[in-house]
Amino acid sequence: MFSFSSYLNESANEDKLTHLEHAEDHPINAGEEGFKHAFNTLHGTHLALQGKKSSVSLSTKYDGSPSVIFGHHPETGRFFVASKSVFNKDPKLNYTESDIQKNHGHAPGLVSKLTSALHHLPKVTPNRGVYQGDIMHSGVKSKTNPHGDVESSAGSVHFKPNTITYSAKNGTPEAAKAKAAKIGVAVHTAYHGNKLEDMKAHYNADVSHFNKHPDVHMIDTSFKPSSANYTPDAQKTFEGHMKKAVEANNKLKSYSHIEGGNESHKEHLKTYINQTVRDNSTPSVAGYKAHVTNKLQKEVDKVKTDKTKAAKTETLNKATDHIDNHTEEFKTTFDIHKHLQNAKNVLGHTLSGADYAFHHSYKGKSVKPEGHVAVLNNRPSKIVDRKEFSANNFERSA
Question: pTM of this prediction?
Fold first, then answer.
């Protein structure tokens, strides 16, 4: 296997956190540089789990909703809450309840969550800085807290912000915090900069300097590698998958086929792979060609004029011809993706076997945590079991 140090020169290109990518998707997004980053991230996680020196930091990924950005405006010092639109050209910043109603009145559920965040997050937020986190719960329902969603049953407290239900046994610190709080939040990102539009994201943020207040249940997202049991057999399996990923990458002379054929294949490939997760099939070149054909044929069928239909048909034909002309390259791309994903799954299984403050379930069945985030050179990657969590998430949103 090639050395970790040979791939340290990477360019970081994530400024704002809008969507985390699976580690195995990096080569699709960024070709050879993406493969280097995927390799380094997975190998660095492998080292961390062995207790060795590593540049990778790890956190537990929480399945909250919505994601909120909050803190003190870097120029005015005023406290605000916002959705991910905060970094848009025309940001919707909420300093007051009236702002929330004006900006988000069409979505009552979001209004409720943002209003709670506006009232309670200033109690714990430092006087400087902008942060991002997932809202996990709204406390226990009461006269003073009508939107509460923390429930008690079977000797535990439960809350379900999105796909996963989180449970903590009565008598534990997390259960006590959930019962006392008006809001629960898992903070994972800090933003640094003198102007809002110029701020850069810093992932797996240290929130130890946040204040403490009983109204706010701060859920710790940090992960200690020493809490996981990384067995010698798992390490050997991981190394075998990574060796195959390297061999497949070395076989591929370049990733130029992903941008060829008059049609970028990045999003097509990722959408197709997600489809295979949904229907539990194995990615293949034939399946991918059928996927692209179906998608682009819908574009042809949508338009009315002969001229536009001809143009759309030409796009379809060029895209499918390009796949036919680069069958081996696309096959190798799927091989790289498979081997990286298999290596990642070994790490994910190890990480998920650690002790957690919460029990996780989906439709009454025990499941793993949503996953973890591995950060290298301030570039984050999801370590998520796509066959379990991603499939459950797709099923829920269907």
Answer: 0.90
